Amino acid sequence: MASIGRLPKALQEVYEWQYDAACVGVDESVFFSPDAERGPSRRAREAAAKALCAVCPVVRECLEHALAVREPYGVWGGLNINEREHLLQDRKTA
To answer: What is the pTM of this model?
Structure first.
């Protein structure tokens, strides 16, 4: 008999945590910057995104997902791309 343990999990099982996220229904522009956004505008938008993440019940799952897939854009799990890259580097050296 074939072992099904190695098969990928159903997407709903893998991503079900997203239904409990504080960002459900929030405009995605809070988490993803326009191309030309810089300086104070970018910092203010990221602060707003991170404030939502700070009260999110699934922030850890969100962050681990972003790290696992190397999400290249936006605020995920309370961290922007640069912060996630630093965290990955720290994990490598730990």
So the answer is: 0.83
